[in-house]
Amino acid sequence: MRHSLTYKVKELASNLGADMVGIASQKSFSKAPHGHRPQDLLRDAKSVIVIAVSLPESSFESAPSREYSAAYLAANSELNRIAFHISKLLEKEGFRAIQIPAAMPYDYETDMGDLSHRHAANLAGLGSFGKSCLLLTERFGPRVRLVSVATNAELSHDPRSDLDHCGSCTKCLDACPSGALSGPGIIDKKKCNEQHEKVGEELGLSDEEQICGVCIKVCPVGKPID
Ligand code: B12
Ligand code: SF4
Ligand code: SF4
Q: For residue 51, which of 113, 99, 106, 114 has the smallest C-alpha distance?
């Protein structure tokens, strides 16, 4: 039962356009901040399904740009759509499931999502953290966006990923235009946010459309060698 439902969930996600799917146990979130664990969103949560959709390589070439912003928004709506259908499948099978927004809405005061998709993706084996604080996947590097679904179904869990993809590289730290990345894994969210606002003003973007993405653009992980 557990294996066949896991298979159905993964199959549906990839039929709907997911590039990667992994599953983490609710128990692996024990170090997540209070209020941001799967059981804070779904009382009897047992598993978290994490889905990644990659963005076309070319959309980053121009980043930050209106074209990258469009790809960013398209990926968010694809992810929310996939998560919606996974939740419906699980409910049809007699379980409960809740989708966590890919991006907006989140708590704008604390800059925190209800659940951190990056941590969830790491726990579900999709990739590991880079010096940029982003999730790096072997195949697409950081050029993926993520979404999670918490469910009370006991699914088969994937092992956590702990590969170091960065080594001695410091490209993202050197390229960050706002100085928000001051060291490996250290981000000043205020500076990063201000950069999003600055770019947004320059490009005439609404709050929801604001992007930067330079730390993704310069990352060599998962890029074809040229
Ligand atoms: C708010 C937000 C922002 C804010 C704040 C960023 C930040 N670093 O928190 C701003 C606007 C600045 C921002 C910028 C960007 N973002 Co953003 N953002 C989010 C959002 C909506 C919430 C992030 C969040 O919850 N942060 C709070 C927590 C995780 O961070 P924290 O306070 O530092 O948490 C500490 C502890 O609480 C603890 N913790 C929290 N949860 C857990 C869980 C466990 C198990 C453990 C052990 C610990 C733990 O860990 C942290 C300490 O290291 C997520 C979507 C989501 N729901 O995950 C996208 C998201 C993180 N953003 C994303 C992206 C791509 C970007 C940008 C590139 C923007 C762009 N598209 O141009 C930049 C990159 C900045 C960077 N280098 O990290 C992607 C990342 C994809 C990836 N490959 O990793 C996400 C996941 C959106 C998505 N659906 O894909 N973002
Ligand atoms: S999104 Fe831009 S400002 Fe924010 S950390 Fe990445 S490069 Fe720096
Ligand atoms: S640019 Fe280099 S240091 Fe930054 S996340 Fe990618 S591999 Fe790591």
A: 99
